[in-house]
Amino acid sequence: MGEEEWEIDLLVLIVALKASGLPPADPSGGDGRAQVQLDARSFQVALDAKYFTSKDISVKVLGDMVEIRMEHEATGAFGGVKRSVTRCYRLPEKIDPATIKSELNKDGQLVIKGTRKPF
After folding, report:
1. If DSSP codes are grouped into helix, strand and coil, which group holds residue 8?
2. On the CB side of 113, how many CA atoms lie within 13 Å of its CA?
3. Which residues form the SHSP domain (predicted)?
C-alpha cells in the first residue's frame, strides 16, 4: 500500500469514528499519568476512568502491589472501540495493604486509598 493510499484510509477511519459517536481513545488529550499522593498517614492514587463504569474496573492487592484493570467495549454504526488499561503500583513500605479501598467518583476518577500500618 502506497503512502497516499494509507493517508486516505486513515482519513476515512477518522471520519467514520467521528460519525459513530464513539469517544476517541483519549479525548482529554491527557498523558495518562496518575496523580499520586503520599503523606505521613496515607497513600492515594487517582486515575482518569471517565469512560469506564464500576463494573469495568477491577482493583486487587497482590502482596505489596495494587493492580488496576479497566476494560470497556462499545459498538457504534461504523465499528467498535475497546479500551483496556492495566496499571500496577507498589505500595509504600509503611502502608497497610489491608486498608486499600477504591472508589469511582462522580467526576470519573478512580481513587485508590490506603492508610499507614499501626505503630
Report:
1. helix
2. 9
3. 25-119
Encode pLDDT of 59-88 as tens digits: 999 998 999 999 999 888 888 889 898 988
Domain boundaries, the chain: 3-115
pLDDT, tens digit (0-9, with 9 covering 90-100), for 41-55: 898 989 999 889 999
State pTM to two decimals.
0.67
Q: How many of the other CB atoms lie within 10 Å of CB of 104?
A: 20
The residue written with cell numbers 492495566 in the block is 86
**Which residue in the block uniquely carries the three cell numbers 505521613?**
40
Most distant pair of Cα atoms in the chain: their distance: 66
Q: How far apart are CA 97 and CA 101, in angstroms?
A: 9
Q: So what's the architecture of 3-115 in CATH? A: Sandwich (2.60)
